[in-house]
Write a structure and sequence with these properties.
- InterPro entries: Amidohydrolase (IPR017439), Bact_exopeptidase_dim_dom (IPR036264), Peptidase_M20/M20A_hydrolases (IPR052030), Peptidase_M20_dimer (IPR011650).
- Residues 214-293 form the Peptidase M20 dimerisation domain.
- The chain is α/β, with parallel strands linked by helices.
- It contains 15 helices and 10 strands.
- It has a 6-stranded mixed beta sheet with strand order 1-2-4-3-5-10.
- Strand 1 and strand 2 form a beta hairpin.
- Helix 9 packs across helix 13.
- The longest helix has 23 residues, at 430-452.
């Protein structure tokens, strides 16, 4: 595996370091952090490939959580399981000495429905037809964090650096179903800073409010009475009619909402069979906006429309909060520190085979640009005055509680659609392996910064208190009575897991998952006709 040399990284670190002796010492420590990550590159690959092979959906990340916590436990971390009412939630803690900063490293672990895909095949080729898979790339983040944490732990012990490392998973992120519950239940109390990692096609970070939204995820259930649909329909009260009327009302109202809003729904229960008037029907909404006030306003509009639909059909309606995500806001001093490390690490040196594979994937899906893998770093720019609308991530709830940044690492191919089988194609190939190692270096170096530079933590808290939360405060959606929807995806995983288990990666027998599957990288074929 070809990587940026230690000599090049050392030179970059020296150039970025300030002149005082203390800064030079930190630079030397960060060089050892880079070496510690490189020494664990094989472990990073095994974690990445193993979690890819599990392919678990939100709330059902049983194998993933067991696997990662076993690794951390063997390395001296104390594990708390079933946190915040999440059966696959956990927190791993390790401390050296008394006091010192508490730095938390997090990343998501869930997959995408119907995204099963053989890695290294540049066209659609499921491992198990119809099964879930890592069509977002969430298999890679724990590899980044675990390897970075172990490299930093080794340095803390050797150099007697006081502090604590806390690792945790983003459970059911695709359902926005985990982090807000963890915040509500105090999982992050006492944490000084959070480094969150997420798969990307470049190595970067950001500060301020990025493009995207926050949201409330809510299911409305209508209740009526059954009757024979042909024999006595007048005796029935159709819950499905209420669902359809609510959807019609919401769709009419869209014209009068801000263009930046996003909302979408699926009917989760439409009745049993046509000749029985449905007595129960449900619809599940994601209601997104860019501010706490905007989310609250649109949520109330949806509630009003639901009540109106119930009145029109002589039914009743109940609602259940399934998940929530605050609009994100990331910490400037922490982002600037991380970006200095990003510049020192740089993008991986992609081989001709890796570039050819990336272009083959882009061509096969008719991507707008067929340019292969990125070779220039993203810049760290000031946030735009008017961020665009878009997706959500419940890291937002943590970012309004503790100084937080997200570090993206180059483990995937640019110009892919997202939430799709094609986003899984590269995620257990040399592209992902290199990207994970690059990300782990940045996370390890930035963790060292946070542990050894008290001024950085002070500046981060100052930004959080005086800039981020000056005009807008955290307004959580969840009530104390709301509970995670841990039953979701149970039936899907029960149906597919026996077949998926046949494809679990066995690192004791195979160097890589590609080797286990008999896939020789790179395959550059066109889709079969």
């Amino acid at each position: 595996m070809k990587r940026r040399s230690m000599t090049a990284i050392a030179c970059a670190l020296m150039a970025l370091a300030a002149t005082p002796a203390g800064a030079q010492k930190v630079s030397a420590v960060k060089q050892r952090a880079v070496s510690g990550v490189e020494a664990r590159a094989k472990l990073a690959q095994e974690i990445n490939d193993s979690i890819f092979s599990f392919g678990e959906l939100g709330f059902q990340e049983v194998e993933t959580s067991r696997y990662v916590t076993e690794i951390l436990e063997k390395n001296g971390f104390a594990i708390e399981r079933n946190v915040a009412g999440l059966p696959t939630g956990w927190v791993a803690r390790w401390s050296h000495g008394e006091g010192g900063p508490v730095i938390a490293l997090g990343s998501d672990i869930d997959g995408i429905p119907k995204a099963s895909q053989k890695p290294g095949i540049p066209y659609h080729s499921p491992l198990v037809e119809g099964a879930p898979g890592h069509g977002e790339g969430h298999n890679s983040g724990q590899a980044v964090n675990v390897v970075a944490a172990l490299a930093v732990k080794e340095i803390m012990e050797r150099d007697d650096i006081k502090g604590s490392l806390v690792l945790w998973p983003g459970v059911a992120e695709e359902l926005l179903g985990g982090k807000a519950y963890m915040v509500r239940d105090g999982v992050f109390e006492g944490v000084d800073a959070v480094l969150f990692t997420h798969v990307s096609d470049n190595l970067g970070t950001a500060w301020g409010q990025p493009t995207g939204t926050g949201l409330v995820s809510v299911e409305y259930s209508f209740h009526g009475d059954t009757a024979h649909s042909a024999g006595a329909p007048w005796r029935g009260r159709s819950a499905l009619d209420a669902v359809e009327l609510m959807n019609m009302g919401w769709n009419m109202r869209r014209e009068h909402l801000r263009p930046e809003q996003r909302s979408h729904y699926v009917i989760t229960d439409g009745g049993d069979q046509p000749n029985v008037v449905p007595s129960i029907a449900s619809v599940w909404y994601y209601i997104r906006e860019q501010s706490f006030a905007g989310i609250a306003k649109n949520f109330e509009i949806a509630n009003t429309i639901a009540e109106a639909a119930a009145k029109m059909t002589d039914t009743t309606v109940t609602r259940r909060i399934i998940g929530a995500a605050a609009p994100r806001h990331f910490n400037r001093p922490m982002a600037e520190a991380a970006y200095a490390n990003i510049r020192a690490v740089g993008l991986p040196n992609w081989t001709a085979d890796e570039q050819a594979f990336a272009k083959a994937v882009q061509r096969n899906i008719n991507a707008e640009k067929v340019e292969g893998l990125d070779t220039e770093l993203d810049t760290l720019a000031a946030p735009v005055a008017d961020p665009k609308s878009g997706g959500s991530d419940d890291i937002g709830d943590i970012s309004w509680t503790i100084p937080t940044i997200t570090i993206g690492y180059p483990a995937n191919i640019p110009n892919l659609p997202g939430h799709n089988w094609v986003n899984a194609v590269a995620m257990a190939t040399p592209i992902a392996h290199k990207g994970v190692v690059a990300g782990a270096k940045v996370v390890a170096m930035t963790t060292i910064d946070l542990l050894t530079r008290p001024s950085l933590l002070r500046d981060a808290r100052d930004y959080f208190d005086k800039v981020q939360t000056k005009d807008q405060k955290y307004a959580p959606v969840l009530a104390s009575t709301d509970k995670p929807a841990v039953e979701l995806n149970t039936e899907i995983m029960a149906r597919f897991r026996p077949q998926m288990r046949e494809f679990y990666y066995d690192p004791s027998r195979y160097a890589t998952y590609l080797e286990q599957l008999g896939i020789k990288f790179p395959i550059l074929d066109n889709p079969p006709r």
